[in-house]
Amino acid sequence: MITSFFNKSKPINFVIVFFVTLLAFLIARIELKNEVVSAQFFLKQAVLFLIAFVSILLLNFIVSKNSLTKKNNYEILLFSLFLLTITQTTRNSDILLSNFFILLGLRRIVSIRSQRDVKKKLFDAAFWVAVASLFYFWSILFFILIILSLVLYSDKNIRHWILPFLGLTTVFVISVGASIVLYDSFFGIFNTSFQISYDFSSYNSAKYLIAITMLISFGIWSSIFYLQNIKKKKKAFRASYKTVILAAVLAFLIVLLVPEKTGSEFLFLFAPLAIIITNYIEIIQEKWFKEIFVSALIIVPFLLLLL
């Protein structure tokens, strides 16, 4: 059965996820018509694929290190399936890099629960989020997650509240210095766009509508049970679980606000959504319903390839 296959962490699961991710990449590249096929093109795509797959491995590390799910591989399977659901998420190199750095930041934020090296973790988290914003400006919204994490932990240490802004300032100063050297301009390196758009016409296709409906409906349904289940977790872990749901909200906010809606922006939503849905799968008691639920998540992305 499908659920029992991924119910335990096994090397074969990572192989399957590797090929699902590779398929998502290949499908996205087949649709590209204006790209010149060359050695440089293949090298660039190989690097982008590596970034995407390492992001999945990083998600697995965050989850296992912080006990955000039980010992299974549902979260990496779901992440790869989400890539296949909206293959456009693998096209934008800036968003792929930005999402990778956001995951590095999320790793540090979630690990604050241990209350060890808190100052270093807060600085690192802000540093990585700031680096992510250099590649994709709207990812700066995840800086809010660092502040909210301090609220969740009821942290009254004034130094802890200052450090995230210090991390942000550090990246800004380094970037300005690099910009002067490379572009002879203070802000030439910054790719900022404060524009906001609520024009969702680019999603007006059967493929997009089915994909977005699946992600939102499964996500909202799972989130209801996810939030209810937080109360049953150990007190030390509750803030980490709340951080994940807040990350999903911020990622969805990015989707709503970004001026250019190409589909790539959904990538920020995949990691927190994979954790949330995995937690729901784990608490489903009816075996038949669990099979149908997981099967739907697997079948729909492949059906969308036919559209």
Instruction: Please write the string of helix (H) and strand (E) elements.
Output: HHHHHHHHHHHH
Helix/sheet category? mainly alpha
Q: What multimeric state do the chains show?
A: single chain
**In what range is the share of β-strand residues?**
under 5%
How large is the count of helical segments?
12
Number of strands: 0
- Percentage of residues in helical conformation: over 70%
Mean pLDDT: 91
Topology overview:
Blueprint: H1 2-5, H2 11-30, H3 39-65, H4 74-85, H5 93-110, H6 118-135, H7 143-152, H8 158-183, H9 206-230, H10 235-257, H11 267-283, H12 287-304
List keywords for this structure.
307 residues, mainly alpha, 0% strand
Q: Could you characterize the architecture of this molecule?
A:
The protein is mainly α and 307 residues long. The protein has twelve helices and no strands. The longest helix is centred in the N-terminal third of the chain and has 27 residues, at 39-65. It is globular. The model has no long low-confidence stretch (mean pLDDT 91).
Structure summary:
By secondary structure, the protein is mainly α.
